[in-house]
Amino acid sequence: MAEPFEIRNADDLFHAIQMIELRDWPEDQAVLFNGWPTFEITLQGKDFAGGIPTRMMPALLEFQHTVRRAYARSVGKSGHVKRLTSEERKQSELIVRLGSGSTTFWSPLDWFLNNALTRRSGEQAAIVILGVAAIVGIENIGEAYIESLTTDRQFELVQGLSEEETKRFRMIVDLAEKHADIAANLTDMRRTLDEVLRRLDDDDRLLVHGKEIATGREAKKILRAKRGRIEPDRVKSVFEILTVDSRGLEDGFRVRIRNVETEEELLVDVPEYRLSLADREAFKAGQWDGVPLQMEIELQRRGDTVVWAELLSVERTDAGES
User: Is 294 strand, coil or helix?
Assistant: First the structure.
């Protein structure tokens, strides 16, 4: 067996991703994350001198959920945090570092990425795990997101970055378009940064991987601009069916569902042509027997409001299968 391909930094990571995408990855090649990546957000301001203001606690919880959902997807648990063991929860727990006028939320991720690699095999699993590392590990990810909020650009282009850095952001977006789990992790990262931005006071500062991204004053302007824009999104998670309504759609029906992980409720269009016989049976189990279903949903958001959502796929969860 070949020696493990060690990943110590972003250069190693994107080299591995390119090899897999170009089909140059040996079939028996293993991956080993060595001391990298970490997930780190730092907040600076007068209220962060040796503590965490209560206004930031929802952001801290969102940060923790993002890390754990990423781990759950990496080990094939579809982002379902409740399925994690106590040891997995402990290993993916955030570390809070208090400094002089700053608080850092930090989590080393090499343990859980290596653990995920030992539990899943194949290129599909490997690319999802590498995609997690790309989203949480590269230093300019926060800067790219802020740029996407202040311009009409997507999440891959940032003024002032090198050609190589821009190429890497394009790779992340391409991976998200191909792999639902990577897209879900990217959405979680965006949601976490949103939650932090909206809770900053004017003179607070947000840093991602040690690089300043925005002040509180800038965050307010950014979020005001975002609220007026409609943005595409995609969610893959486990949902409970609350109601089914066959009125109002010529070819299909509409369901109200609840995400069992985030508790977000969505009103989703279900086109008749998307449903196979197995899909119909899954919906019957969800509607009549209360069986949770794994769904992939395409949607559009204006700020925190979902303005349109449509089902892409549905299947019974392990818990719902006989």
Answer: strand
Global pTM reads 0.71
**Exposed/middle/buried for 70, CB within 10 Å: 0-12, 13-18, 19+?**
buried
Report the SS3 class of residue 44. Answer: strand
CA distance 132 to 31: 14
Q: Which residues of the chain carry a pLDDT beneath 50?
A: 152-158, 320-322
CB 34 within 8 A of CB 111: no
Tally of CB atoms within 10 A around 149: 21
Q: What are phi and psi of 31, to 5 degrees?
A: -120, 140
The tens digit of pLDDT for each residue in 186-241 reads: 888 888 888 899 999 999 999 988 888 889 998 888 787 777 667 788 888 899 99
**pLDDT given at position 120:** 81
- Structural contact between residues 304 and 284, judged by C-beta atoms closer than 8 angstroms: no
